[in-house]
Amino acid sequence: MSPSKIRFSELVGEQTRAEIFATVLTAGPISRTQLAQRLGLVPSSVTRMLPPLLEHGYLREADATAPQGRGRPQKMLHVNPDKHIVVGMKIGPAQVSGVVTDMAANVLARDEEPIADCTPRTALSAAAALTGRLLSKAPEAADRVLGLGVGVSGHVDSAAGVCRYSALLDWNKVDVAGPLQEATGLPVVVNNDVNTLVVAERWFGEGRDVDSFAVVTVGPGIGCGLLLNGSLFSGATGLAGELGHVPLDPAGPMCSCGRRGCLEALAGDRAVLRHLQDGGFACASIGEAITLARSGTDAARNVALAAFTEAGTALGRGLAGMCNLLNLQKIILAGEGAVAHDLFGPALTQALEAHAFSTAARDCRIHVDPVQHDLWARGAACLVIRDTVGATLS
Amino acid sequence: MSPSKIRFSELVGEQTRAEIFATVLTAGPISRTQLAQRLGLVPSSVTRMLPPLLEHGYLREADATAPQGRGRPQKMLHVNPDKHIVVGMKIGPAQVSGVVTDMAANVLARDEEPIADCTPRTALSAAAALTGRLLSKAPEAADRVLGLGVGVSGHVDSAAGVCRYSALLDWNKVDVAGPLQEATGLPVVVNNDVNTLVVAERWFGEGRDVDSFAVVTVGPGIGCGLLLNGSLFSGATGLAGELGHVPLDPAGPMCSCGRRGCLEALAGDRAVLRHLQDGGFACASIGEAITLARSGTDAARNVALAAFTEAGTALGRGLAGMCNLLNLQKIILAGEGAVAHDLFGPALTQALEAHAFSTAARDCRIHVDPVQHDLWARGAACLVIRDTVGATLS
DNA sequence: CTCTTTTTCTTGCGTCAAGAAAGAAAACTT
DNA sequence: AAGTTTTCTTTCTTGACGCAAGAAAAAGAG
């Protein structure tokens, strides 16, 4: 038998093109040669893969005027931001908020639509209406709208475009992609809302340089999206990431899910509020609690700080468990609750370091995402970009 | 631009061959057509990939005598057990135990070598000696010894063949593959011991039909190996699976790692023994505790059962957390402690069901592996088979 | 000002994977 | 004996990609 050649790259076709696009996206303007090096390809392969990307207008060659030393000048490639736009959207219980972005996920316009109730009917027609409004705000330079990405909390079957179940929205087997596709005429991509954040962080944020990280959202609930070995991890049936209901304390308070001592019951907004109430400083909202902790009377501040500290400790223990199990390189804290990071952060870090088992788990970096109002919707837009470039190259 | 075809299969070359071998291995005697269907290939591709596998003697065509209805008779393919043999080995603190298996991982011979201490020097020379003894026991029909698989507890860098750190053996950056390769002249594959179990279960055991499962070993410590999306998950630096040190109870007992309330401190052997001692029925070993729980006096049995129940509850809570996070389809309980399943099982199941969040997590099946003495070593042998067929096809 | 050097990109060729389609083998049915 | 049915094989084509040689374009040397 003749010794067969080994194929160094494990990429094939479409996938290679998607990789090229992603690399151009994340590694800024980049030359063909550099691309080849990064992807473990020979330069000619890069050249060969490019025409479709350039013809579609996904990528563009820079005008290249800077002096580059001797040799043939590099033609830098970068994402062509003007040609295509994308709509991203998050369906929440009280409103639908969305953005229009270009192909580099820069936000071009934003808008939102409050909804009276969150029945599928109301929410989806609001989403369709919002899409129209957003597109009318977008620059007309755009040649073509690539699609609509939607983030929904709960259990989403993204292949089918269906929300199987959402506790927050009280949805049960709701077809999201179908109606929206019908109403807007756009390709629709649906996924879990936290997963949209994972994609956004992976492509444009803190996840660019690591291959396994978690995005943990802190707020009324605790959400978690995972990127393992470089790809989104959804579990066997798309339900992975229920960090909020990891049991942490057999003697803990009751959780909304009916069990005792879930992380969410120890570190969610309600836990903080309960703690404050017990201390005699009841607050109506978590925002109020944060204000109290930052600028209340001394007595109130102590109670509030203790409440956040306790939440931070619980969160740190939960994250430590996850790190021990998954050996993550980074944890990105996001969600509304991240603004209170100054209050719960120290306790979190301490608990995490105390319970992180091995050196590697201790090396797991924590990153707090600056509060970005559009982050969710932007993530949803990323879904479309990913799907488009990963699949639609004709 | 012409519409490009989509490549349905994501397999390429070597990988396809490895898939074919694995499918033949796990799906018994199977025809080319069936193989093609399973792997999403067209029959001709299967035919094309086979010659190297057949020539190497990894696979063989059955003599096919059974009547098969009309049509050209299928030529069933099966693993050729006789041609190659493999050595698998587990290095433990008190002995090295190993097996010789055929290519279907059937155990042909077993042996073990006690070691006085577990310094790398002692352990590795014992392993080399044991390899020699095992091979002399093996049938000489074997054409060729494919390699030596070694399972070591702790943090293993399998690519380098090095044990980075093992608490159990008190090893630090010990080169395992090098010396053994030198001493035995065989290709050596090293991995974490629990990971060898994962591979074994995936190929020959309870993991055959699921794509994401965990193997959890119960004993002095709690170990865990993960198979996610069909492939072994080792985390960013090979440290994933530290289930034993997931924090579960802030008020729990101290763990050997110095933290409080780790799963291992709540459900490991020592937890059971401590509970018994507190109840006034001190035992020297876990075996004694099991005997006590099964056939002691009523008072002793109550205490012992309570101890196991508590451990089972803690384990159930830990597993529930893992399920919630990873949406596993199955959890396989193994290790020495699995024999006590009748004692802690009910509590485990109850706690798991109580804390498993979503329907999918609740659907996660628990399987208790019947105590198999060679399971670890057999798993190590599987490593070699996997690596060989996955990589060495020339 | 021309020639060389250097770096980058492109073109042509060979190989391998894998689908498509048609043909060959081997059994059963009529 | 001829047809039917299922399985396996052969041949052809497309596409990905490495390899190697060549073309492009700029800086530096003589």
TrEMBL record, chains A, B:
<keyword id="KW-0808">Transferase</keyword>
<dbReference type="InterPro" id="IPR005471">
    <property type="entry name" value="Tscrpt_reg_IclR_N"/>
</dbReference>
<comment type="similarity">
    <text>Belongs to the ROK (NagC/XylR) family.</text>
</comment>
<keyword id="KW-0418">Kinase</keyword>
<dbReference type="Pfam" id="PF00480">
    <property type="entry name" value="ROK"/>
</dbReference>
<dbReference type="InterPro" id="IPR000600">
    <property type="entry name" value="ROK"/>
</dbReference>
<dbReference type="GO" id="GO:0003677">
    <property type="term" value="F:DNA binding"/>
</dbReference>
<dbReference type="GO" id="GO:0006355">
    <property type="term" value="P:regulation of DNA-templated transcription"/>
</dbReference>
<feature type="domain" description="HTH iclR-type">
    <location>
        <begin position="27"/>
        <end position="61"/>
    </location>
</feature>
<dbReference type="Pfam" id="PF09339">
    <property type="entry name" value="HTH_IclR"/>
</dbReference>
<dbReference type="InterPro" id="IPR036388">
    <property type="entry name" value="WH-like_DNA-bd_sf"/>
</dbReference>
<dbReference type="GO" id="GO:0016301">
    <property type="term" value="F:kinase activity"/>
</dbReference>
<dbReference type="InterPro" id="IPR043129">
    <property type="entry name" value="ATPase_NBD"/>
</dbReference>
<dbReference type="InterPro" id="IPR036390">
    <property type="entry name" value="WH_DNA-bd_sf"/>
</dbReference>
<dbReference type="InterPro" id="IPR049874">
    <property type="entry name" value="ROK_cs"/>
</dbReference>
<protein>
    <submittedName>
        <fullName>Sugar kinase</fullName>
    </submittedName>
</protein>
